[in-house]
Amino acid sequence: MHLVETRDLTHVYRGNLPALQGVNFIAERKSRIAVIGPNGAGKSTLFKHFNGILKPTSGEVLVRGEPVTKENVREVRKFVGIVFQNPDDQIFSPTVEQDVAFGPTNLGLDEATVAHRVEGALHLLGIEDLRERVPHHLSGGEKKRVAIAGILAMEPQVLVLDEPTAGLDPQGVIDLMGFVNRLPEDYGMTVIFSTHHVDLVAEMADFIYVMDQGQIVASGTVEEIFARPELLARTRLDVPVIPKLIRSLQESGVAIDMAYTYEDAQKSFLDAYTRRA
């Protein structure tokens, strides 16, 4: 049984061409899944189906093997939490602490449980010092962390992040990357995210879906997708810097193993240097 699955999912906004066309998507437990593609590819529309914000025009969405319906959508939203690209879309309480508490409070939890969850979410995101601040006076990166904390306080099993690095400074991106990478192993969560920054995908994902014009045009591991520069070019994406550099060196006659992450690239360069010494 898959945690999240779509079967031939199609969505047509009123009066428009299909935003999604026959999308088949699977998310397994404790996985990190990247959805990449150009603007307008349908990534955000796909994500809004995962917890019933949007309803399919045709096809279906299943969570834990059960179709998402009006009757079970409340339970689905406990299980699948979505953080939107713009944190202002989901931050509205007078203080950060109240905002993070909003979700678990609306689950009907008692005060002690809500307080425990809020404290845990604030700690996990490293924003305990912001608890009394007014959310709309925060920086973009701080707002992003508050929005994520508000979803995590509901303890979902699937966390969906729509362009999570948008508006973050370089240190914010590094912090977010480290946070996302801990969630599957430390907390048993599945993370699904979209991004335009292909250089981050190898560091943050185990599996990739490539979308274009409302369709999934390719899927595979990091190695499988980034070994296809023609696919990336066709979908107006670029090959990440690390494999691009290594491929260039290989074409120049340097005996170096392909790598996609910083850690693997470091090892490849050291091995190549050792062999030449």
Description:
Helices cover 42% and strands 21% of the residues. It is an alpha/beta fold. The chain has two domains: 4-228, Rossmann fold (3-Layer(aba) Sandwich), CATH 3.40.50; 240-277, no CATH class. β4 and β5 form a beta hairpin. The longest helix is centred in the middle third of the chain and has 18 residues, at 170-187. The mean pLDDT is 93.
The whole-number mean of residue pLDDT values reads 93
Strand content: 15-25%
Q: Which structural class do the helices and strands define?
A: alpha/beta
Give the strand tally: 10
Low-confidence stretches: none
Please bin the fraction of helical residues.
40-55%
- Major sheet size, sense and barrel closure: 6 strands, mixed
Order of helices and strands: EEEHEEHEHHHEHEHEEHHHH
Strand order of the largest sheet: 6-7-8-3-9-10
Question: Which outline best applies?
Answer: globular
Rg over CA atoms, rounded to whole Å, is: 20 Å
The CATH top-level class label of the largest domain: Alpha Beta
What is the CATH superfamily of the largest domain?
A: P-loop containing nucleotide triphosphate hydrolases
Instruction: Compute the number of helices.
Output: 11
**Would you give the CATH topology of the largest domain?**
Rossmann fold
Distance between the termini: 52 Å
Function: Part of an ABC transporter complex. Responsible for energy coupling to the transport system.
InterPro entries: AAA+_ATPase, ABC_transporter-like_ATP-bd, ABC_transporter-like_CS, ABC_transpr_CbiO/EcfA_su, Co_trans_ATP-bd, ECF_ABC_transporter_ATP-bd, P-loop_NTPase
Subcellular location: Cell membrane
Keywords: ATP-binding, Cell membrane, Membrane, Nucleotide-binding, Translocase, Transport
